[in-house]
Design brief:
68 residues; 3 helices
């Protein structure tokens, strides 16, 4: 798995996940629990991971929607 996106903005994370899931690309979130524990002050970024086979397509989708 490769890191696709790292962001402190929960709206960017939610939008990216929606775009990828509607394109049938599996997304795995890292650091979600630590981000929730710190009290929603956005100190720790959440990372979105995708498989090696989908990284190029996923990057193109996010670039087309100005998330990368």
């Amino acid at each position: 798995m490769l890191e696709l996106l790292r962001s402190n903005d929960p709206t960017n994370i939610a939008f990216a996940k929606h775009l990828l899931k509607t394109s049938f690309i599996e997304v795995f979130e890292l650091d979600v629990h630590i981000s929730n524990l710190e009290g929603s002050i956005s100190l720790f970024p959440v990372r979105l991971m995708v498989s090696n086979q989908n990284i190029v397509q996923a990057r193109e989708i996010l670039m087309d929607n100005n998330l990368l």
